[in-house]
Amino acid sequence: MTAVAEGVEAIRDRVRDAARANAAVRIVGQGSWLDAGRPVSAAGTISTREYSGITEYVPGDLTMTARAGTTLGEIRETTAEHGQWLALNPYGVDDGTIGATIATGAAGPLSTFFGRARDLVLGLEFVTGEGVVARGGGRVVKNVAGFDLTRLVTGSWGTLGIVTEVTIRLHARPEADESFAVRLPDSGGLDRVRRTLRQLPFVPYSCEIVNAALAERLLGTSATTALFRIGGNREAVRAQRVALAELGDVREIDASVWDRLRGVEPQQALVFRLSRLPSHIERVWAEANALASRCPGAMLHANPVRGVVRCVIPSASPDCARHVADAFATSTETIRLGERLPMDLWANVSPAATGSDLAERIKRRFDPNGVLNPGILGGVA
Amino acid sequence: MSPPLPAALPASPVVAQIDQQLVDRLIEIVGARRVLHQPSELLTFTADALPSYHKKPSLAVFPGTRDELIAVVRELARRNLPFVPRGSGTGLSGGALADGAVIVGLNRLNRVLSIDAENLLAVVEPGVVNVALTRAVAAHGLHYAPDPSSQAACTIGGNVAENAGGPHCLKYGVTTNHIIALTVLLPDGEIVTLGRADGEADGYDLVGAFVGSEGCFGIALDITVRLSRNPEAIRTLLADFMTLDSAARAVSAIVATGIIPAALEMIDQATIRAVESSIYAAGYPTDAAAALLIEVDGALAGLEVDVATIEALCRDSGARTVRVARDEVERTRLWQGRKKAFGAMGRVSSHLVVQDAVVPRTKLPDVLAKIHRIGKDNRVNVCNVFHAGDGNLHPNITYNAADPDETARVHKAMGEIMTVCVEAGGTITGEHGVGLDKVPYMELIFSPDSLATMCSLREVFDPGRRSNPGKVVPVHACREWHAAPSARRIGSNA
Question: Contact B118/A198, CB-based, under 8 Å?
Fold first, then answer.
C-alpha cells in the first residue's frame, strides 16, 4: 500500500522518468482487460490499482470522488448503503477499476437511459505524458469552467494522460427496478422493438436483444430475445411492463441477468461492435450474424436505441477466424469498433481512432514523447 | 437596462485607415451591407447581455452562407487578424466581446439543414435560434432539450460555445450531452469533422473538447444535435416557503428520492417581488421567503405519484402552500416569471451583475445563508433565482453604476460570494461560461498546471491564438504566451 501513501506524485515521477528515457509504459488498472485495444509495445507498466479509495462521498450531493484504483465493486457497495448507484455497468466484472472504466469510456446496458462514461464523469485528475498533474471539471454536477479536459481524457485509453482520480455523478435507486424478457420472432423483431420504443413515452434503463446462443447462456432458452430493464415508481413500471407486452409475452427475469451479460466473455474471446444509426439496426444485425456465421457459440447482442450490435466470439476456430478476417476485409458503411481482436484485424476496424490530424496534434501536445500506451488507439497514439 | 454609453465614440480613423483594403475584400465576400466598420454601427456589438463590460471591435462582418464564412475566416487568417465569433450576443460572461478584434457574426447562418426524426437527429447551422430548432421539429413530436432562459434569442452555435444549460438540464443534460458531431472551421481556415453522425464512434472525444470552448477553438459550420421526444405529460408545481432554509431542504429531499424532476428552480423573495411588480407577474406569493418551481415530466402513468411524493416532501420541509398548475396557461405563466426574472430586475435598477457558481447540493442552505449575510454586510441587494436542483446559483445584484461607492460594494460582495461558493467545493460557472468576467476567478479553482494544460489544448485548435483572444484562461497562465495580435495595431502607422 505504499503506492497509496506516495499517491499521485509517485505516478507523476514514474511518467517523468519514462518521458526522460523515451521508454513507453503500459497503463494498467486491475489488469483484467489487457488484451483490449490494439497491441501496445511498452517497456514497463504503471499501475493505478494501488492508488485507490473513495476520497469524498456526500450522499445528498449524489456525487463521489474516488481514486483511480477504486473498484466498481467498492463503489457499488458503498453507494448501495445509501440507496444510490453509479449507473454505469460496463462489460466486464466489478473488479475493474473506476480509472480504467473512465479511461476506456466504457459503457454497458444502462447506457441506454443513463448515457455513457462521458455523461456521468464530472471531473478528473490526470498525469500527462510530460508528468504534469492536471485537473479538469470539478466536483459539482454542472460546470463549464475552463476547457473540457474531462471529456477529452475520458475514453482516450490513457494515451493523453493517466487518470488518477475521478468525480462521478450518482443516481438514487428508483422505487422499482424490474427486468423482463420478451421472445422475438426470427425476423424483423429488432426493428419492431426499435419502432415500439420510439413510440412509447419512456426510455428503458436497458434494452439488449440477444441472439439464441446468448439467450441460451443467460436464460436457458434458445431464441432471439429482448431483455428490458425499466425503473421508476411502481405505477410507472407496471404501466411500462404493460406497454412492452405489445411486443409479445413479457416474462419477468432476475436482475442478475445484466451482470451475467456483462461477464459473458471469456479470456481470449474475440469482441467487436458494429454500429449505424438505429433505423439500420436490422441491417447491422444481419451483418453481425453473417460475420459470426462460421463461429459456433458466437454471442450477439443489439442495442436498438443506440444502434449498436456487440459480437462476442468465445473461441475462434481457424475457420471462424478466417471468415471474420475476410468479412472485415470487405468495406461497409457500418462502423466497426474493436474491443478485443487479433492483431491483423485491427487494420480493418473503422477508422483508426486517432486518425485525424487534430487528434494526432492533441496526442503530441499531451504526450510529446509518445510514452503513454503507444499504439493502443492506432495512429500516433 | 442598457448601460450609459458615451455620447459619441471618438472617430476612429485608425480602424478605417488600417483596413480599407480588408474592408474592401470583406465587402467583396459578403456585400457592403454586411460589413460594419463605422463606430456608430459597431455600438451594438460593444457589449453582450452582461452590461458591465464594453469593448470596441475593429469591425464586424456577417457572412450569409457557409462559403462566405469560410472565405471571411481564411481572409482573416491570411492577415493574421484576431476575431471573435458571435451569435445573438445574449451571453452573460462578456465572452463575445471583441477588444480591437473583428466580430464574425453568425446570425445569418440560420438554416436547419436536415431533420432525421426517426433517429432523433438534426443538423443545423450555428446561427439557428434555440427555440426555432424546437419549433422546426415540433411537428415530429420532438424538441431540442437544452433551454437557456434566453432561448428565444440565443443561437445553437452560441450554446455550443458556452455549453449552455437551462432549467430543464437537471433531467436532460446540458448542451454537451446533446451534440453528436460538428463540422468546424479552425481559425487558420482548415475544416475538420469532430465526432460522427452515422453511428457510434470511439477515439478522442473531440466533440466534448469543442463544446464549451467559448469560441477559442474555431467556428462550428454545422452542428448535429440529438433531439428529444416530447414528454407525454408535464406537471408543474409551485411551492412557497417562509424560510430559505426550508426551501433548500426541500430541494435536497426531492433530489434524494430518485425522482429526477425536469426542473427544480428556486426564486427568493427579492426576485419574487421584482417579478410580481413587473409585466411578467406570475402569481408568486410576495410574502414568501422563497418559492420552488418544480416540474416533472415523462410518461403519464406514474407521474401523479411523483407529484404527490414531491408535494409531500415540500410540506414535510415546511412549505406553506403547494399548488399544481391546472393547465398549460397556468404553467406558462409560472415559467414566464422564472424565465423573465432578470428582465424584471432590470426595472429595479439600471445595472445588474449575475453570477453562475455551482455548489454541492447539500451546501445550498449554508451557502444561501452566507450570501444573504454578504449582501447585508455590503449593503447591496442580492437576489437569488437559480437552478436549485443542480446547485447552480445565480445570485445577482442590481445597482446604479453611476454611484462609485455602490459599484465598489457590489464588486466586493460578488468577490466574497464567489469565494464562499468555491470554499464550499463549488465551481465558478455552471452554464454562463468564463468569458472575460470570470477569468480572474479561474486561479481559485485550477492549478497553474491545469490552466497551462488547457492552454495547450487551445493551441492545438488555434496555434495563433486568434480566435476569441484573452478569454477563459488568464493570459499569464499560458506558458510562452505572446500577446495576441490586435487588429487595431496591424496596419496602423500610429
Answer: yes
- In this structure, chain A runs to a length of 381
Query: Are B200 and A306 within 8 A, CB to CB?
Result: yes
Please give the Cα distance from B364 to B371 (Å, whole number): 10
> Under an 8 A CB cutoff, do A307 and B442 touch?
no
- Chain A residue numbers with beta carbons less than 8 Å from the beta carbon of B208 are 118, 148, 150-152, 154
- Residue A121 · residue A63 · CB < 8 Å: no
Domain at A176-256, CATH from 3.40.50.300, 3.40.50.720, 3.30.70.260, 3.60.15.10: 3.30.70.260
Alpha-carbon distance B425 to nearest alpha carbon in chain A (angstroms) = 7
Residue numbers in A near B231 (CB within 8 A) = 201
CB contact under 8 A, A235 and B302: yes
Residue B478: its pLDDT value, please?
Answer: 82
The burial class, CB within 10 Å (0-12 / 13-18 / 19+), for B492 is middle
Best CA proximity match to B137, nearest among B232, B225, B199:
B225
Which CATH number is associated with domain A2-172?
3.30.465.10
**Contact A136/A124 with Cβ under 8 angstroms?**
yes
Give me the helices (H) in B378-474, please: 404-423, 442-445, 448-461
Question: Residue A351, exposed/middle/buried by CB under 10 A (0-12, 13-18, 19+)?
Answer: middle
Cell 424560510 -> residue: B243
pLDDT band at B413 (very low <50, low <70, confident <90, very high): very high
DSSP state letter for A97: B
- Cβ contact, residue pair B232, A201, below 8 Å: yes
Query: CATH classification of B112-229 is 3.30.465.10, yes or no?
Result: yes
Considering only the beta carbons, identify the residue of B212, B427, B451 that sits closest to A140. Answer: B427
CA distance A209 to A182: 9
Q: Which CATH number fits domain B232-340: 1.10.1040.10, 3.40.50.2000, 3.40.50.150, 3.30.70.2190?
A: 3.30.70.2190
Over 50: is that where the pLDDT of B5 sits?
no
Note the pLDDT of residue B163: 97
Instruction: Given CATH 3.30.70.2740, say whether it is the number of domain B349-432.
Output: yes
pLDDT of residue B473 exceeding 90, the answer is yes
Optimal mutation site among A113, A144, A169, A194, interface B, most CBs of chain B within 10 A: A144
